[in-house]
């Protein structure tokens, strides 16, 4: 009898390990592909513009639309997984991602690319949110932390390799090649998911899903981005611009009213009373957003014939030191925080970013690629220093039962930051360039001034970020294990949920 129990227990253990391995493979591979796809698209914009005849200003929506939809969906997709099954929702995220890749690759006009990217934003957010939940459910203890670390590493590698791979494909097979390959890799994850990953859900979760809240987030962000993108052309006091801002305000008010009344709100408004969480979330928004914004401009400037005149592959290769800096620094964040403290680390990150943007503000049309490397590496390094600790603070500043909600707020902030900051910098870049050309400047000088003012606009936000440190790292309860889990994935990952056993522990410490 005892032998029967042992055999059954051994078989169950083996099955659990196989399911955990399948979850690790499916989620890490898909996270790598999603993050690579996200970071590669900016490099492809000039090639897509030339092929479809769509202006780059319009194709900016291929970047901001992705982030906008992702911001609206990231929390909802996680909730759908908790209620209806994480494997099921993860599977449909893969299907949607494949469909969006095919739509983009087959598009002959910019509108198809933009529509596909918006769909891809929903798919990517779903894959990342449910993927992390599947990892947490399939592993326990140290294995859970190891899985989170590997998932974060896969995300970082994907984000680092995306521009290089995208540029290489654009220069050889054409820009469509990236999406065909991404679709094939995502398709390979489907049988692994269906045959190997164990289904999981959270029976304690309310069955209601706040879909109205998701719609209102999109309704808040979309007109805001329209206004920021077109305000220069329309006029900042035009009825179009004011109308967009009015819709944004009305939708934001509607969102607050809805969240107060629904059974399972997308955002628990009580969390906004937590100044540490609010400060950390805003810091994440600013840090992630400004990096996304400046890299969008870099991709355009490096490939412009009147600037550095790189092809897509050269531009992707040129961004490699930037991504490498964030990847290399990521595992060093925890010991750095242990030595100098959370506050100092966050401040140092924003100071480095501000200084780097200040250097980029002096760009002239005589600058070669070598002049850009150090300040751009500084921007990436500073973002890593402030983003990891802020991700930890956002979850360690709340009760264990609120960790998931706090993590959702941070996840949303990354998408919102990318969408809003890219819209701001695109408006500045195109507006300054147009004014300089009107005033008689050469095309190369106009582009350099546009890049300069784009850097200044991003630097201002980073300077403001320094002030947010006074809102974070006060009266924070920090668990070292939780911090390590978050920091491992923080630099490039879009969604971070600390391992459940670690997050449930409550310890206190002085974050200095």
UniProtKB/TrEMBL annotation:
Pfam family of the protein (one): MFS_1
Domain (Major facilitator superfamily (MFS) profile): residue spans on this chain: 23-477
Protein name: MFS transporter
Organism: Agromyces lapidis
InterPro entries given in the database record: MFS, MFS_dom, MFS_trans_sf
Swiss-Prot/TrEMBL keywords: Membrane, Transmembrane, Transmembrane helix, Transport
Keyword Transmembrane helix tagged: yes
Record's subcellular location: Cell membrane
Record lineage: Bacteria, Bacillati, Actinomycetota, Actinomycetes, Micrococcales
Residue stretches spanning the membrane: 21-47, 59-77, 89-108, 114-135, 147-171, 177-197, 209-228, 234-257, 277-301, 313-333, 340-361, 367-385, 415-432, 452-473
Membrane topology value: Multi-pass membrane protein
Highest rank taxon of the organism: Bacteria
Record's keyword annotation contains Transport: yes
């Amino acid at each position: 009898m005892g032998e029967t129990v042992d055999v059954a227990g051994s078989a169950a253990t083996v099955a659990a390990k196989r399911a955990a391995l399948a979850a690790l493979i499916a989620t890490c591979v898909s996270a790598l592909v999603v993050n690579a796809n996200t970071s590669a698209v900016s490099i492809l914009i000039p090639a897509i513009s030339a092929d479809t005849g769509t202006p780059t200003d319009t194709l900016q929506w291929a970047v901001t639309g992705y982030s906008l939809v992702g911001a609206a969906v990231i929390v909802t997709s996680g909730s759908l997984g908790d209620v209806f099954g994480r494997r099921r929702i993860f599977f449909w995220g893969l299907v949607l991602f494949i469909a969006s890749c095919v739509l983009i690759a087959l598009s002959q006009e910019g509108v198809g690319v933009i529509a596909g990217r918006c769909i891809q934003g929903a798919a990517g957010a779903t894959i990342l949110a449910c993927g992390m939940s599947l990892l947490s459910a399939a592993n326990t203890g140290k294995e859970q932390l190891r899985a989170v670390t590997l998932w974060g590493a896969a995300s970082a590698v994907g984000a680092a390799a995306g521009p290089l791979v995208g540029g290489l494909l654009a220069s050889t097979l054409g820009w469509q090649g990236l999406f065909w390959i991404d679709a094939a890799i995502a398709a390979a994850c489907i049988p692994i998911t269906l045959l190997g990953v164990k289904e999981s859900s959270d029976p304690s979760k309310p069955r209601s899903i706040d879909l109205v809240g998701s719609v209102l987030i999109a309704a808040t962000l979309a007109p805001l981005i329209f206004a920021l993108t077109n305000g220069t052309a329309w006029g900042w006091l035009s009825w179009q611009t004011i109308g967009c801002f009015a819709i944004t305000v009305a939708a934001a008010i509607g969102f607050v009213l809805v969240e107060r009344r629904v059974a399972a709100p997308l955002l628990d408004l009580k969390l906004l009373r937590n100044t540490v969480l609010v400060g950390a979330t805003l810091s994440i928004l600013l840090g992630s957003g400004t990096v996304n914004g400046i890299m969008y401009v870099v991709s355009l400037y490096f490939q412009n014939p009147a600037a550095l005149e790189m092809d897509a592959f050269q531009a992707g290769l040129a961004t490699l030191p930037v991504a490498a800096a964030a990847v290399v620094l990521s595992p060093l964040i925890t010991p750095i925080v242990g030595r100098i403290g959370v506050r100092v680390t966050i401040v140092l990150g924003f100071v480095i970013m501000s200084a780097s943007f200040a250097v980029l503000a002096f760009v002239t049309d005589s600058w070669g690629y070598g002049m850009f490397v150090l300040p751009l590496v500084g921007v990436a390094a500073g973002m890593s220093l402030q983003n990891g600790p802020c991700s930890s603070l956002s979850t360690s500043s709340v009760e264990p039962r609120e960790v998931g909600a706090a993590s959702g707020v941070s996840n949303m902030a990354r998408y919102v930051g990318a969408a809003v900051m890219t819209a701001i910098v695109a408006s500045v870049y195109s507006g300054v360039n147009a004014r300089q050309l009107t005033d008689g400047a050469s095309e190369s000088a106009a582009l350099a001034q546009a890049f300069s003012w784009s850097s200044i606009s991003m630097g201002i936000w980073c300077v403001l970020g320094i002030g947010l440190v006074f809102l974070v790292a006060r009266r924070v309860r920090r668990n070292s294990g939780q911090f390590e889990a978050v920091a491992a994935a923080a630099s490039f990952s879009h969604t971070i949920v600390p391992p459940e056993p670690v997050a449930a522990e409550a310890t206190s410490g002085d974050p200095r």
